[in-house]
Q: What sequence folds into this?
C-alpha cells in the first residue's frame, strides 16, 4: 500500500540516473529541475529510513501541534513532511508554512499539495529559510535541510527557531551525520554505500554524486548538534531515529 504521506506521484517519478554516465565536468549539486524530476526516487534510494521519518513526523504532529499555532517545514522540497503533518494534525485553527529556496521544488510541491483535500491550510513560500520570520510555532521541521546551510549561520538559525517556538514546542531535525571516531565514521560510510548499491546505484554514481555534494552537504557530529541546540536554549534534545550515518533528533522548548 502506498504511504499517504508521500507525494502522490512518487510511485511514477523518473528513475534517478543523473550520475549514471561518466561526467567530464561534475557540477556543484543543486535542487534544480533535473533533480526535482527524479527526487522521489533519489531520496528513497539514498536516505535510509526516510519513509519511517516522514511517517513519524506525522505522529509528532498529532502529539505536539497546538490550536491557533503554525507548523513550519523548512526546506520542504516536494512536501512529504508537510503532507505528513497535514494528515495528522488533530486540532483546529492550525496553519502549515512550507518553505524552500528552490523554485522548481516549490512549483512541483504546489501541484502535489493542490491535489490533496485535507483541510489544514498550507502556505508555500520560495524563500531563504535564514531570511524568513518564525513565530507562534508549535512544530518546526528541518528534514535533511540544515546540512546544506553554511556552518557559520547554523547557530543563528537554531536560535531563531527556538525563539519562534511556543513553550512546549518542538523541533524535528533530521541530518546526515559524522562521527568523532574515524574508524567508526568510515564504517558508517561504507555501510551507507552498501545500502546505495543494494538500491541499484553503481560505484560510478556513488562516486560522482559524492563529488557533486562535496562542500555543499556538510555533516556534523551528533554531539555538535546537541550542544548547539542546548546552547540556544532547548531544554531537551536527543536522537529518536538513526540508521548508519543518518539520524533524526527531537528538541523541545521548556513549558
A:
Amino acid at each position: 500500500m502506498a504511504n499517504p504521506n508521500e507525494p502522490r506521484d512518487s510511485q511514477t517519478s523518473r528513475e534517478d540516473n543523473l550520475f549514471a554516465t561518466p561526467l567530464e565536468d561534475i557540477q556543484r549539486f543543486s535542487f534544480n529541475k533535473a533533480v526535482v524530476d527524479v527526487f522521489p526516487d533519489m531520496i528513497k534510494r539514498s536516505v535510509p529510513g526516510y519513509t519511517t521519518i516522514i511517517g513519524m513526523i506525522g505522529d509528532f504532529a498529532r502529539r505536539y501541534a497546538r490550536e491557533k499555532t503554525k507548523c513550519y517545514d523548512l526546506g520542504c522540497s516536494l512536501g512529504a513532511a508537510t503532507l505528513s503533518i497535514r494528515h495528522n494534525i488533530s486540532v483546529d485553527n492550525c496553519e502549515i508554512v512550507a518553505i524552500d529556496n528552490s523554485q522548481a521544488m516549490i512549483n512541483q510541491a504546489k501541484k502535489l499539495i493542490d491535489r490533496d483535500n485535507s483541510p489544514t491550510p498550507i502556505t508555500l513560500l520560495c524563500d531563504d529559510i535564514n531570511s524568513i520570520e518564525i513565530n507562534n510555532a508549535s512544530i518546526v521541521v528541518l528534514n535533511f535541510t540544515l546540512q546544506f546551510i553554511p556552518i557559520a549561520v547554523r547557530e543563528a538559525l537554531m536560535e531563531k527557531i527556538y525563539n519562534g517556538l511556543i513553550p512546549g514546542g518542538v523541533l524535528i531535525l533530521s541530518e546526515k551525520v559524522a562521527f568523532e571516531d574515524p574508524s567508526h565514521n568510515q564504517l558508517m560510510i561504507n555501510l551507507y554505500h552498501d545500502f546505495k548499491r543494494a538500491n541499484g546505484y553503481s560505484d560510478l554514481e556513488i562516486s560522482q554524486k559524492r563529488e557533486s555534494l562535496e562542500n555543499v552537504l556538510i555533516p556534523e557530529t551528533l554531539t555538535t548538534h546537541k550542544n548547539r541546540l542546548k546552547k540556544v536554549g532547548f531544554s531537551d534534545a536527543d536522537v529518536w531515529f538513526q540508521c548508519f550515518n543518518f539520524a533524526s533528533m527531537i528538541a523541545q522548548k521548556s513549558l
About this structure: The radius of gyration is 18 Å. The first strand starts at residue 70 and ends at 74. Helices lie at 33-46, 50-64, 80-88, 103-114, 154-164, 182-198, 203-213, 222-232. Confidence is low (pLDDT under 50) at residues 1-11.
